[in-house]
Protein: Methionyl-tRNA formyltransferase
Amino acid sequence: MKSLKIVFMGTPEFACSILQSLIDSRHEVIAVVSQPDKKVGRKQIIQETPTKKLAIEHNIDVIQPIKIREDYDGILAYKPDLIVTCAYGQMIPEALLNAPEYGSLNVHASLLPKLRGGAPIHKSIIYGEEKTGVSIMRMVNKMDAGDYMLQKEVVIDVNDTAGSLYDKLMVIGAQAIIEAIDLLVEGKAVFTKQDEANVSFAYNISKEEEKIDLDKSYKDVYNHIRGLIPWPVGYIYFHDKKLKIHGVKLSEIKRDIPIGELFVEDKQLFLSCHGGVVQLCEVQLEGKKKCSASEFINGNKSRIIGGE
Structure:
């Protein structure tokens, strides 16, 4: 079967699993395109993107245009047979997408047309979806709107967090892209138009969305919390300080406790919500280190209902 020269375009950790699968395949990754490196932390240290680090490890050329709409001639110069994209982070011009013989394929972490956008993994849990997956699609100059050729489903377990679901999707995404390229090379690829009537969106998590909405039911609160674990981590307020929630369990107990209050029962920590409660397993009070629920209870007994 024909071996293709591929330019890969992607930036975050999730994209690394796709890139690694391409590196391990019979195909040749001739260049990696990622977003520019960013300054992080208080010291503003420049941090290389995950895909750039992986590319350097494998002696693959890296290109980091600031504005790809204005600066893509260097990518075209590689004359790739195929472009593969995954969470690149900028809208890619059609002149670039359409240049290769086999066009461009994108790996998106949802079952399109559901959850177009930059946070499909987080939002699939926050929205209470029972399943999600990976779609391999043609890239077009509209966010995640291209025809798809391959989809792989994953069940969202009631205990899944964004982190655990991310791990599942990385595995099937890496498998799916190789399968899709094989179909493309063999001339067996069939593309299906997305049903615009069923489109939904999963825009990037905003700062406002990190605050847990306690006006919703306990199941919605549970989904909201676990959909933000391990990043960016949701929070509630505890005595006027942010309390980040790093670990949570769904509970079926019901208690007549004011909504939004923390309480202790059988040495466990619970948050009262509409229609029920959720159990908090690992938390972090503003200005403090992350700790277990029992450590938090011991340090705040007099301020939690039932804590004494």
